[in-house]
């Protein structure tokens, strides 16, 4: 069989190619998987293990072991690690729920950023310092941090991260921040950080989109507007959902013809959806290439379809197909369309 082209090599001169990783992958439980990851990707983001609930389970207890392993994995395979994430309202340690006083939240906030960002300075390439602080209308999302620390908390998080991690790039990350109203809020937030003289190096657009509905115009406008602030623009959690929200994936394969089921490019999807998925990824990468001077990284939220969080959301146990590689790490039609852009 012919060797599968490498994404990271294909786009080497343009932008980094990343993936989300979990324990099984960075612990190298499957040597073939390790080889595959090292060949396809030069950047990685931990899907869960650096979130506060996992890395900081108790007031005075941190669990650094998985993150340390991830850092080792990155070093060994020349993969830059993006820390994800220091301040997020979700996947918080359970002890946070019991906290009622402003002082204690303040203490958690300071200690957490100082300890975690400090430990990995020079070891990770970058951090998503704050994740998902905005509502869809661009206002600040109501979170435990907003409630107790006020709407300056985002700037303060970056200030603390800058002190603790002077060698690490610092990013703001969100979803739907390519849409005009949320984008305006995001720009205001970034300007506020910059006006305080605090460093912010980039903005992440997560990129959880839906097949046939990828908002290319908004994305292009966002690249331009964020770049105008002097920031790197990254697509940080890219996947394209192919199932309707309340739809079990099994129903899709039941509708497939025998031909569709045995077609290697189909990888479990009806032809028409597979074609649309490929067209969407192709259009996206065309846009990323057009702005390669501003777009520095494109990270997929999972190595292959089998890893994707969309198999469990909003319903557990569905079967989705949102990525470039199928469950056996075989490239889908979308992969070949994307790679062909560089030929
Ligand atoms: O580890 C436990 C396991 O012990 C338990 O048996 C199992 C059953 O409930 O749950 C496991 O934890 C799950 C964890 O993923 C690891 O698989 C959590 O329930 C589940 O909520 C968690 O989901 C993650 C989600 O963030 C949490 O909000 C997804 O994997 C992860 O892909 C997703 O990632 C987020 C980004 O961080 C931020 N942007 C949106 C993106 C998608 O939601």
Automatic annotation (TrEMBL):
Q: What range(s) does the GH10 domain occupy? A: 1-341
Q: Which reaction does it catalyse?
A: Endohydrolysis of (1->4)-beta-D-xylosidic linkages in xylans
KW Nucleus (keyword) present: no
Signal listed as a keyword: yes
Enzyme Commission number: 3.2.1.8
**What keywords were assigned to this record?**
Carbohydrate metabolism, Glycosidase, Hydrolase, Polysaccharide degradation, Signal
Q: Which InterPro entries match?
A: GH (IPR017853), GH10 (IPR044846), GH10_AS (IPR031158), GH10_dom (IPR001000)
Active site (UniProt): 237 (nucleophile)
Q: Name one Pfam family in it.
A: Glyco_hydro_10
The UniProt entry's sequence similarity note says:
Belongs to the glycosyl hydrolase 10 (cellulase F) family.
Q: What is this protein called?
A: Beta-xylanase
Gene source species: Nibrella saemangeumensis
């Amino acid at each position: 069989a012919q060797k599968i082209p490498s994404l990271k090599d294909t786009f080497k001169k343009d932008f980094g190619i990343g993936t989300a990783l979990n324990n099984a992958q960075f612990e190298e439980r499957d040597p073939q998987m390790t080889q595959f990851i090292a060949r396809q990707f030069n950047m990685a983001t931990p899907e869960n293990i650096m979130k506060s609930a996992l890395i900081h389970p108790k007031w005075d207890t941190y669990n650094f072991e998985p993150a340390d392993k991830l850092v080792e994995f990155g070093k060994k395979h020349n993969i830059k690690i993006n820390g994800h994430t220091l301040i997020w309202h979700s996947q918080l340690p359970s002890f946070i729920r019991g906290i009622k006083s402003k002082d204690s939240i303040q203490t958690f906030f300071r200690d957490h950023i100082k300890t975690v960002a400090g430990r990995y300075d020079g070891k990770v390439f970058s951090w998503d310092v704050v994740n998902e602080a905005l509502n869809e209308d661009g206002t600040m999302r109501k979170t435990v941090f907003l409630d107790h620390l006020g709407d300056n908390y985002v700037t303060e998080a970056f200030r603390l991260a800058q002190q603790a991690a002077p060698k690490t790039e610092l990013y703001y990350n969100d979803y739907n921040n390519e849409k005009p109203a949320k984008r305006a809020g995001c720009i205001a937030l970034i300007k506020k950080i910059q006006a305080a003289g605090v460093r912010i190096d980039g903005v992440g657009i997560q990129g959880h989109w839906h097949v046939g509905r990828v908002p290319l115009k908004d994305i292009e406008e966002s690249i331009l507007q964020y770049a105008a602030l002097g920031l790197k623009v990254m697509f940080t959690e890219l996947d394209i959902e192919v199932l309707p929200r309340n739809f079990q994936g099994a129903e899709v394969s039941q509708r497939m013809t025998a031909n569709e089921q045995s077609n290697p490019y189909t990888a479990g999807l009806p032809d028409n959806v597979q074609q649309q998925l490929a067209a969407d990824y192709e259009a996206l990468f065309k846009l990323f290439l057009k702005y390669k001077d501003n777009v520095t990284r494109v990270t997929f939220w999972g190595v292959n379809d089998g890893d994707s969080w969309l198999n469990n959301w909003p319903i557990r146990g569905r079967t989705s197909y949102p990525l470039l590689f199928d469950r056996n790490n075989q490239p889908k039609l979308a992969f070949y369309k994307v790679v062909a852009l560089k030929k």
